[in-house]
Amino acid sequence: MSALATDTAGTAPREEARPGLLERLGDRLNPLVVKEVRQGVRSRVFWVSFGLMLLSCFILSMVAYATSREDGLSTQGQGFFFGFYVCLAMVHFFIIPYSAYRSLAREREDETWVLLILTGLGPRRILRGKVASFLVQAGLYASAVGPFLLFSYYLNGIDLPTILLVLGLGASWLLFLTVVAVCVATLADGRIGRALVNLVLLGTLGMALMYGLIAAFFLSEQGYRSVVRENGFLLATGICLWVMFSYGWLLFETAAARLSLSTENYTRGPRLALTVQMVLTGALVMGLWLWDTPPTAAAAATSVLGCLHLCVIGIFVATDVDGQARALRVLTRPWSLLRPGAVRGFRLIVLLVLGWTALCMGFFFLSLNSSSSDSSHAHLLGVLAAPAYAILYLSLPLVVGRLPSSDRLASPAVVRVLFFAMAGLASALLPLLAVLFDQRVDDPLFNLLNPFVGVANFSDYDYSVQETKMNLGLLACVWLVAVLTAFAADRALVERERRAHAS
């Protein structure tokens, strides 16, 4: 019996050791992060930047030590903190985003992007890996400068909450710039386009570095306590953080859509992000409105800003490629506005514009109940005029671009150029035409279809004669032209999609 037990125990299968926590996390980690981090820390740019940053911080720390020894009780912590932060900001706000841009641009230039796609990661996961890898490198830089930043706290003149506030907002700015830089790398395909995008990105990152340093200097100079006490600062900070988060998500989804295959439902991500952005923005603005009701002029300004945002974003959404891949035509419904197709994108933008207008009308009546003024009628006309101009100038280039029989003139790039060209010509030529006929530059009739002066005229109230510049009849004319143009654009897009399906 003992021999049998021994034999049975000897032949019993052993239980496999369960993997540890680090091994499980490593399996779930994006493999592109490991590859990019290894490649990044071995590059010459990383070590040159790392060495120069540490050398600059070391020199500043020696100067701070000598100054504190001479002055006895030093209160120069704020100045030296900003000096250390400049060294970190040069890397975080310029080198890291530009290196992220070059990493993805090099993949497309060397045609190694196809090899990444074949790994099965997908465009969205690849972009997340690119962003995460450079954030890890940014963390390495920050860990090296961290002791110097803490050293400035012991020099007096700056408190620890102020340091944490500056570093927290700087980290948000770093994340936004990195996402933008990675997304910019997906814009251009040709050599000239890449060179132009490269120059624009360099200028943008230079301005972003300057803005980041100005904000850091202001916060470190004012201090945490004096800044947080002001409600305006908290509101402005919340708005900036929301703008960075929402636009970062929108740009990320747009970049993933550009890198996706035509057989995929590539438009679902960016269109869903745009819809969620508008819905959450409306909810946040509604909360602010109920908290402190502003005058009716704020409702008109909110309507104009929202319609302008939707109009500029909408011209890119409404110029999608006509038709769908055969795999996407299955289970397609007329209300599936998140699926590919120019007509679906156009209808989605129009619905968002109308929904935003309805929300701004609610803001207007809330403000009207709290405080009424003689100019409230003009502000109401401004709320209703902004969506009319947005729909008109969103539809007009789609109609004009589809009039010729050539497919080149109806391409997305040409239609987008038409949008900006027609808006610019209308805003410049109509006032010039009014001057030629000996009228005022902002004459209401000559500028009735002017997207900028027209909105301003509808929102303006002439206190000298106690009446508005515009009336409901002129507003009805603008809406009539906008509705007819939108209907023509919708029919043109539907016809082109039928032709694309038939071919």
TrEMBL record:
The chain crosses the membrane at residues 45-67, 79-101, 134-155, 161-188, 195-220, 232-252, 272-291, 297-319, 348-368, 380-401, 413-437, 470-489. The keyword Ribonucleoprotein does not apply. Keywords: Membrane, Transmembrane, Transmembrane helix. It comes from the Bacteria. This is ABC-type transport system involved in multi-copper enzyme maturation permease subunit. It comes from Archangium gephyra.
